[in-house]
């Protein structure tokens, strides 16, 4: 009984001690509301002067954190359509919280809206560099920054130059270097902004019931790779792989594709050379770390749309 009474007494004592602290927190006003009110009446410069005044003289009366200025910035962007004012707010937020991820990401957002894309890249990258040091919320902001940077750099549109229908002439070399020719039609299309569908129908199958092969490609901004799935109904269904961009050589685009099949590790080197209405696509194969050998080459010619 004494133990229970002591427990109740300690709980009441703790509640009494915490009550003033909770009351103080509840009584604090959001500094963002005060700053935004001054903006609506006197403009952004006076509003930011008010922020500094409140911080200096009435910090105990207001809540100050990075979310206060961040919220104002997005309100100026999305409600007031005042990009110049939002830029000043986000800039101040970066100065107030120099090691935070969110202010850098937000500053990059307003730069994109203002058309200053090169500078935006700088701040998206700065947000990403803070990634490893931060908590789960800021890690999520960093992931968003990677996605927005990828969209800004149009990495999801890398293959748009292939959109359309192509006539294909191909040569395949087996491991004994014997060649076999084929031909067909290849169509590149986007299911949405992020997913490309490649459909290939070989002429040898034109009169068969076997459908063509399908290759699905989408960009993963977090890993800076293209994730793909190859579907060949005549074989084993779905074959996932990862396609990693390499440094280009002139107008030659280069990608390394990696996948495992039957305990064999494959790496395919894709070399794509666009030349007007033609594209040469060559693939080199490496198995289990062996040297690359030339495996397949497609020469594609764009097909003109029929006129009705």
CATH topology of the largest domain: Lipocalin
Strand content: 25-35%
Tell me the CATH superfamily of the largest domain: Calycin beta-barrel core domain
The general outline is elongated
CATH architecture of the largest domain: Beta Barrel
How many domains, as an integer? 2
List the total number of helices: 8
Strand order of the largest sheet: 3-4-5-6-7-8-9-10-11-12
Secondary-structure element sequence?
A: HEHHEHHHHHEEEEEEEEEE
Using the coordinates above, name the CATH class of the largest domain.
Answer: Mainly Beta
Low-confidence stretches: 1-26
Distance between the termini: 95 Å
Keywords: Signal
Signal peptide: 1-23
Architecture overview:
Keywords: Signal. Residues 1-23 form the signal peptide. The protein is of the alpha+beta class. The chain folds into two domains: 29-153, Tetratricopeptide repeat domain (Serine Threonine Protein Phosphatase 5, Tetratricopeptide repeat, Alpha Horseshoe); 159-302, Calycin beta-barrel core domain (Lipocalin, Beta Barrel), CATH 2.40.128. Helices cover 39% and strands 32% of the residues. The chain has helices at residues 2-27, 31-42, 44-57, 66-78, 83-96, 102-113, 117-129, 136-152; strands at residues 29-30, 62-63, 164-173, 179-190, 195-202, 213-220, 225-232, 237-245, 253-261, 264-275, 278-287, 293-302. Strands 3-4-5-6-7-8-9-10-11-12 form a ten-stranded antiparallel β-barrel. Helix 2 (31-42) runs antiparallel to helix 3 and helix 5 runs antiparallel to helix 6 (102-113). The longest helix has 26 residues, at 2-27. Residues 1-26 have low confidence and may be disordered.
């Amino acid at each position: 009984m004494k133990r229970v009474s002591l427990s109740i007494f300690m709980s009441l004592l703790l509640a009494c001690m915490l009550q003033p602290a909770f009351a103080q927190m509840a009584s604090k006003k959001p500094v963002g509301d005060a700053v935004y009110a001054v903006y609506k009446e006197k403009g952004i410069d006076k509003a930011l002067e008010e922020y500094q005044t409140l911080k200096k003289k009435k910090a105990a009366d207001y809540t100050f954190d990075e979310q206060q200025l961040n919220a104002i910035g997005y309100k100026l962007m999305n409600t007031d359509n005042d990009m110049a004012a939002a830029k000043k707010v986000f800039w101040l937020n970066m100065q107030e919280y120099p090691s935070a991820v969110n202010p850098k990401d937000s500053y990059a957002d307003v730069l994109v809206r203002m058309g200053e894309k090169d500078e935006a890249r700088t701040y998206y990258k700065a947000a990403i560099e803070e990634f490893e040091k931060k908590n789960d919320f800021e890690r999520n902001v960093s992931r968003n920054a990677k996605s927005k940077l990828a969209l800004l750099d149009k990495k999801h549109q890398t293959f748009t130059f292939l959109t359309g229908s192509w006539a294909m002439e191909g040569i395949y070399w087996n491991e004994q270097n014997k060649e076999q020719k084929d031909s067909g039609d290849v169509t590149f299309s986007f299911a949405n902004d992020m997913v490309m569908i490649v459909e290939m129908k070989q002429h040898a199958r034109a009169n068969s019931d076997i459908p063509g092969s399908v290759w699905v490609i989408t960009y993963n901004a977090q890993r800076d790779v293209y994730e793909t799935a190859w579907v060949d109904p005549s074989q084993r269904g779905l074959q996932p792989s990862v396609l990693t961009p390499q440094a280009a050589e002139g107008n030659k685009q280069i990608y390394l594709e990696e996948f495992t099949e039957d305990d064999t590790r494959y790496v395919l080197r894709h070399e794509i050379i666009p030349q007007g209405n033609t594209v040469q696509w060559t693939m080199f194969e490496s198995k289990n770390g062996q040297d690359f050998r030339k495996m397949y080459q497609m020469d594609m010619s764009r097909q003109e749309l029929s006129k009705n």
